[in-house]
Amino acid sequence: MTTPVRSLPVVQNWDCSGCSACCRSYYIPVSSEERKRIEGQGWEHEAEFKETAYFAREGSWLSGRSYRLNHRSDGACVFLGADNRCRIHAKFGAAAKPLACRIYPFLLVPAGDHWRLGLRFACPSAASSHGQPLANHLAEVREYAAALEADSPGIFDAPPTPLQRGQLVPWADLLRIASTLSRILGDTNHPVERRWRKVLGLATLCRGLQFDGGGDAKKMITGGRLSEMLHVLGDAVEEETPTAADVPRPGWVGRIVFRQMAAVYSRKDHGLEKGTAQRGPLGRVLAAARFALGRGRIPPVNSLIGAIGFAAVEEPAGPLPADADAALTRYYQMKVESLQFRGATNFDLPFWDGLESLAMTFPAIAWLGRVFSSGGLSREESLIRALRMVDDNFGFNKLLGLSRQKFALKLLAARGELTRLIAWYGR
Questions:
Q1: Chain centroid to CA 305: how far?
Q2: H-type helices in 249-378, by residue range?
Q3: Which uninterrupted H or E stretch holds 26?
Q4: Of 154, 160, 290, 414, which residue is 20 to 30 A from 298 by alpha carbon distance?
Q5: What percent of the chain has pLDDT over 70?
Q6: Peptide bond before residue 105 is cis, with ω within 30 degrees of 0
Q7: Taking residues 330-355, what's their average pLDDT?
Q8: pLDDT of 320 over the 70 cut
């Protein structure tokens, strides 16, 4: 019997709009079974496949060889038809495609006794909340969950992600904390940047608590006691969170580290949006140096980055447009409620560290939104594009999982620079 899949209390819609962005942006891994199935579908009888390989090899003999679907010179998957439809799907049905293709843009996160259902906002339909309510897709998602469980039979044996090193709480309490954070992030009476500063203020208070009671069961903060405590701390944070105007500007260390992270979130090394600034080792070094200095023109590490200087994106942009605010609200509630921001789905980060990594996406989105606005897009369109680009990397770009990136994030949070960056780019 498949472990239950729980839809989240977030008002979010999705249906595939056939834009084919995913077929042009991602390299899709295939298992040996999937490879054999596709090889047996008779594509060798199609003229265009006479001299086209279905798969490309990755890895080395030392790290292990793997296969992915091949891409044409224009960046599209070899099975993407002229009508922007998957030819495997059109000819044999959805079940004939690789699981990675079928499951996108859904995210399934194991959480004790069930799966949490999330969504990747890198998909244009997800970012725009196009289509049916997410709950209407539960039947198909359960099929994907069953396939994932078959591939990873011990996936539910893992303990809950620690809040921080050495501090474990039960799954139920972890979900209580996530629900509280989601409620704060969903409070549209305040700007998104203020909501995030309240969340980080609550996280700071919680980091100093000993939830296990020091081994004394009577002093444990769990269940109803935890809910009450979170309510009280939430009220305290509400009173203590200053306005954005009263938050100091980020320091030079904070700005340097932030720009390096912004470079990672905006960089594209393949596909239609492939950048030109980082071609070759020397190009990558020069682009990194320019991001560190923060002077002159922003290196085009992504083809969507136009001719704009670093100084221009430091200017205030004003309140978020209503639709962009709504998209960001859905996005952050979805990430927190699904628990995708911590553990195995975000480079094994503990709960609070993972939350801070998610908070970092807000200044990155605001920064990139200003970059794209310079190219003639409306502010709303620019922010949605920035949201999609950042989410494309969050939890998936291996550069974000490197030790130096984790250390940089800890440095920003410990020095108070993270809250300053959120307030600064939220202006």
A1: 20
A2: 252-266, 280-293, 322-338, 351-373
A3: none
A4: 414
A5: 97
A6: yes
A7: 96
A8: yes
Rounded to an integer, the average pLDDT of 300-306 is 88
Would residue 389 count as lying in a domain? Answer: yes
Q: Are residues 191 and 313 in the same domain?
A: no
Burial label for 37, CB within 10 Å (0-12, 13-18, 19+), is: middle
Please report the sign of the dihedral spanned by the C-alpha atoms of residue 312, residue 270, residue 45, residue 101.
negative
- Are 227 and 306 within one domain? no
pLDDT of residue 214: 64
Domain count, the chain: 4
pTM for this entry: 0.94
**236: amino acid identity, one letter:** A
Assess whether 131 and 204 both reside in one domain.
Answer: no
Look at residue 8 in the predicted model and tell me its pLDDT.
78
DSSP 8-state code for residue 164: B
412: CB partners within 8 A, 6+ apart: 254, 257, 258, 356, 360, 418, 421
What does the buried/exposed string (b/e) look like for 256-266 if buried means 16 or more CB atoms within 10 Å of the residue's CB?
ebbbbbbbbbb
Element counts in the chain: helices (H) and strands (E): 16, 8
Q: Are strands 55-58 and 66-69 parallel, antiparallel or unpaired?
A: antiparallel
Residues 257 and 301 both lie in one domain = yes
Q: Are residues 137 and 11 in the same domain?
A: yes
Cα-based distances in Å from 392 to 21, 123, 134, 173? 11, 8, 20, 29
Give the range of the structural domain holding residue 46, as residue numbers without chain letter. 27-92
pLDDT band at 64 (very low <50, low <70, confident <90, very high): low
Three-state secondary-structure class, residue 77:
strand
In a domain, 97, yes or no: no
The set of residues, in sequence order, having a beta carbon less than 8 Å from that of 150 and lying 6+ positions away, is none
Q: Let me know whether 322 and 381 are in one domain.
A: yes
- Render 220-276 in DSSP notation, one character per residue: ---HHHHHHHHHHHHHHHHHHPPPGGGSPPPPHHHHHHHHHHHHHHH---SSTTB-S
